[in-house]
Amino acid sequence: MNAYNIRSDKKYWEEKLAAFLHDPPDKVLALRGHEERGKMLQESLYLPSPDEILISQADQVASGLDRTFLPDRQAGGYVDFSKNPIITHPTGENAHLQMGPVSSGNFADLQQLIEADINGLPQKDRISYLFSLFHYFRHVLPYRLRASSLWGLGWRWGKLPADSRMPDHSIWQHCALVSALYSCFSTSPERKAGLMVFSITPVQDFIARSRKLRDYWSASLILSWLTAEGMGAVIKRYGSDHILYPSPVGQPLIEEMLDRLCGFEKWRGRYSVEARAATVPNKFVFLLPFGEAEEAARQIEQEIKNRWNGLAQRVKELIKKQCFKDVPSDCLKAFDEIFDRQVDHFWILQWASVPVLDEDLLQKAKDYIPEKIVEKAQKLLRKARECQLPYSDSERSEKFFFPLSHDLVQRALAAQKLSPRDQRASEGGIKCQLHPDHEILRFSCVECNRQMCYFTNRPPDKNPRPSEDPCWKLIREKWRKTEFKETERLSAIGIIKRLVYKAAAEDHPLTPFFKEAEGFPSTTEIAAKDWLDRAQLDIEDQGLTRKQVAEWLHRQEASPREDPEIEELSKDIAKRVREVVEKRASVRDEPKVVDRYYAILLMDGDRMGRMLSGGFAARWRDVLHPELLSRIENGKVAEQFSKCFWPLFLDEKRTLSPGVHAAISGALAEFSLYTVPYIVQRYGGHLIYAGGDDICAVFPVSTALQAAREIAWAYNWAFVRRGERRTILRRGGDEESSGTIVQEIKDTSIMQDDDQLLTHLGPGDGISISGGLLIVHHKWPLRASISRAHTLLDIAKDSGRAALALEFQRRAGERRTFVAGWEDKVWDERVWDAFEAVTAFLMDQQISSSLVYKLAELKPAFYVLQQEDLIRLIAHQILRSDSKEARKDEEEVARKLAVLLKGHRAKGEEEKFNSDILIIANFIAEVRRRKRNEGRTVA
Questions:
Q1: Which of 27, 55, 775, 882 has a 20 to 30 A CA-CA distance from 536?
Q2: The domain that contains 230 carries what CATH number?
Q3: For the whole model, what pTM was predicted?
């Protein structure tokens, strides 16, 4: 290893790059001559020829079963992609996309673009240059081809398929897998690849134990960064092509690392840090040479520990510099000892590794894998051999059993987590308020033998009150009162989360994320966002910031004496804020109770483990090119395919191959990196984390449900456009016309050359996401709120998945809870559409709040009424109690109300009718009414 810990093996990097270039990027556009064009690229870089046998084997395994089942040109399987440029979706059901006109151009133009780019790369030494060169082809070239629109292909470059017959994953993903497998085969003494999963825990114990919203966000970023650093160790040892999940391409923390290592700074347009959210999950999966697991794991562990310790020391030195300049070193011994001990023993790093299973290894491992998965793979292989399909007797039988290998390694990790290797010893002393299993940071008063304390001129107090603790008095004196409560004393872990935004403000990978950390909104700001938006001009006229106004609003519910988190405002600032409030009051828009509530949204993909074991919606017929599918069904290919094999399997679920795994990983990455941040920003929220299918964001109450529904819809999008916004009509009728947009597309007619084509997981049974949405008072303890939101997410999943559990919790603790599936229907009407309709009726005051409570009182009668009788009863109540507007459409209004009352997912019939949803709708309607009126006179 060199100074950057990059693998110091020139041959390794040369052969890896040559293996990556075994297929040129334009292969699918001109199949004839593609091998020669690949060699031209290799020769232009003065690369030695890789081992042809290993390249062929790596190519087969990367393709998995897919290549085995496809007829070649002689068997009638050739598809001319330039004439019929269709890509299919790897996981979604019946999803494909016509890419429009494509054609290859002068290959010399592509070579010239590459040559101009790589001539500008740093050339410190041959190893570093080869490392940079490989990652240029993996991370930069797809972006450069798209951005330059070489040959007029623009956005198409990113999704050109590896194989026109089954065009469900890109040439870039395929080449990366081939190079990774080649490196595994060539460096393993047994010529085998292994699969490793590595995880960092605890997750929620670290993230959710937060008092401030910024703590929660900062903790998420730290964990995401540590995972990225672990992935970085893999990248420096093996290359980014080895990482299967999460996709490293486009991940800001990974791309920024490559900028530093490779000199890619001028191509920063290939990724975005605008969301400033955690987007790397806490575990990753990668390929490695079989036999290197122990050594690789040690290197990853050491990298993570070094980075974590480095960040922790930054925080410790910041505290000492800011707060303890005049404190004697003897007094700091306990502080240092406690800090270092807690930092050293906090994280649990676990890993599991298995060989990529071949036919022989499967016989030894099959007792640990679900029989259904084993039988599915063996059934396909038996039939392929019976039909004498090509490569079915290949010595590289690993390609047939990749989903089994993945399932086995995940089970091995899960088994480890049942008995963790590292158990933290319990600590004595006064306990941290955020991490009660940790001792607070303190001076050496407990161990001190002095007669008189250095700070107080009296004997050292071994158990001081919080306000008298000399360590924490000094810390509080140097920071704003909102930073540390007067009663708050923290452990090393707690204070790292609190102050990391300061410690990493310069010259750190997290610096771009913490750029505006001091302005990160509080729960009060999130709750009052709609009102602050309406008051923005008045706030600016008074020379105030939104945070100052939010602090004043927060203060109105308690004094600083009662709530030390409230910062004292100067009399001048307080006076100007009051003038803003008075001006809003003159148009009947002063802050009200509804402006004190915000929403926490948690979402998580359903059955992801099952999907990554092959349980997705796509059938084999869905992923074949339509032209080839037609030939198979009409007997236009060799009989071994059209009559012997495919009639049995066309309508079965396709299996997981390494290429499909890479495509799923890429789809989850594009969903979390681009689509989720766009939707959260569009609805005025703040994203905390989006690690693949795992999402947390906070919203104003007015938009939270709409955002949750749109994220759930987007999860099932197949093909997605990201680019400059054109005027479009969204679901719900809203028009938009400027800025950047992320939108589902069914065809490419609106795609522009500089757009980016994304893929998500696509439609189909078993591909879904569930959510927990909590509407809560801004002063309710954040830790308790997050815990409750997690409980709601569990409730949604337990109800049958693909659902949202929505809860409104008043400050006094009263809860109103409702659960329904995103697509659940009552009498052919979506429950959540009915909710939006009822909310609109309440917002427009077509029905009154009193009706809502009256219907709640009538709940016992609902159990004995049939559909029409129930609607008739509700309509009767509308006629008796509501406005003339409601009476005009009482049947329609009554039907929507009845759908809501019956729409709750319940485990028992006694719970089926849920009137809580009407109370929730009434509250959201009041919030939206205030937002819509924007300060105009409210009736």
A1: 775
A2: 3.30.70.2220
A3: 0.93
